[in-house]
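Two quick folds needed for the group meeting slides. Do the first one here.
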Amino acid sequence: MKNQKKLTLEDGDAINADTRRILNELAQQLKEDQKRWEKERKQREKERKQREEERKKAELQREEERKKAELQREEERKRAELQREEERKRAELQREEERKQREEELKAEKAKREESQRDFMARMDHLDKLFAQTREEIGGISQSNGEFCEEYFINSFKENPTLFGEKYDRVMPYLYPDPVVINDEYDLVLRNGTTIALIEMKYKARTKDVGKMFSKLHTYRANYPMFKDYKIYLCLASFRFPKNVRIKAAEEGIVLIQQRGEKIEVISENIRTW
């Protein structure tokens, strides 16, 4: 206590001045902090409001997109339903047209069969009359049989120019080449854009007729070089095919065509093309 310095009035004033200075500085710092806090609060509030506006905007946009997508799906559903209905009506109309067409085709085919049958029966009656003639007329009868055979197959292919399900747009009976490279005549030729059928017609076929088909092929190739890339069927048409003829034709790949009732049919095996 003896060493303690006694404070003077000037010292008290100095201490008071320092204290006031410090308090003023603290007050000033506090005001600045308050301003800074207020500014930060306002900034946070502004950011919160901005985020809230963005959220509402995004929510509104999502709702608009949802409604738009729902409307688009509804329009697509209606269009698809309308398209299905139109397709159903078109399909129903097409089926009705096809049904009517089939009925017309069946009627036309039936009428053609009946006409062909009447024609065939008339020709068979004519043939029966020819067979009833005397022996002195056998030669004439044989010639008539051959003509009847040729006329029958020619008319059959004119009415239905198909073979093995393939349609031909040219039916040419008694074809003679012009110009001639090798002299020959072809009883009946069917032709389309890719295929040719050479048909020889005999009232009663023999084995030698099978062998002659290759001679016909050779002369046809020579006389018609413009069809060198076409495939060719070699065909023998007849009312009768003895067993040995059938065997020979099967060995050589020759097509045999025979009258069967109202129609003609292929009775061959091992059919080839050249």
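Then this one, please, same format:
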Amino acid sequence: MMRRAPWGISILALAVFGSSHAQAPTAPTPARAPSVQAPTAQAPTAQAQQPPAQSMPAQPAQPQPVPAQPAQPQIVAVPPAPAQAGYSAPALYNFANAFARAGKPGFAVLNYERARLLDPSDPDIDANLNQVLVASGLPPETHTQFERMTAIAGTRTLAWLGVLGLLIAGIGALRVRFYPRHRRKFAVATLLGIVMLGVSIAHAVALWPIMHEAVVITKTAPVRVSPTLIEETLFVLPEATIVSTGAEHDGFVLVRTATGRTGWTPSTNLARIVPRQADHGNAG
């Protein structure tokens, strides 16, 4: 009896413990939201720190800034002056045509006049010269009968004609003295030489005024009473006017127009038709 007591106690205790659990209702487990597993924080690796390489569109090359260049002054296109070796009538004629097309009648008339001195028989030079003068509001040039006749021969031919006439006249005069039998023949030769020399001298006399003529190359050339800027202006010469020059004083030149009016104007307003040695080759 004493041996079975522990077993009975144990059975009784288990029965009591089971009944207590059966009677106590179990509390309902509250519904839990589905758990979202947070990503495990990991130490960023070198690849995680750098964004994945993506193909970027090619950027157009940016133009490099160019430093601003200083504005260059606009230069009117003017043909170069003829060189010493090319100082001929055709060169001056073409040079004058270029100035006429460029709207510079003063330089055009200047070079037409120079070309006509070298080739007075060229009709195109006279035609273009008068055309420029008329377009500038100036009267065309006129020529005497003697100038037309000498223009046919040419300045160089007439110069050589004078030299030849001088030789013939000299030789004829000597022959008349030493050969009296042929006096009449040598007298005729002497007379012929004198005529030839006279024609050349007359042509030189006709050209002498041109040696002292000049052309107005500026838009206007004010002519004053005396060679100073403080004097009043007598009249104004337009561009391309041909004047005769006289005395010079302190940068001024005494000029005389075709109508006889005289006065002083700055020498920078003029260009001589026959250039001096100092400005030889300066065709404008």
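Slide caption for protein two: The CA atoms of residues 69 and 152 lie 57 Å apart.
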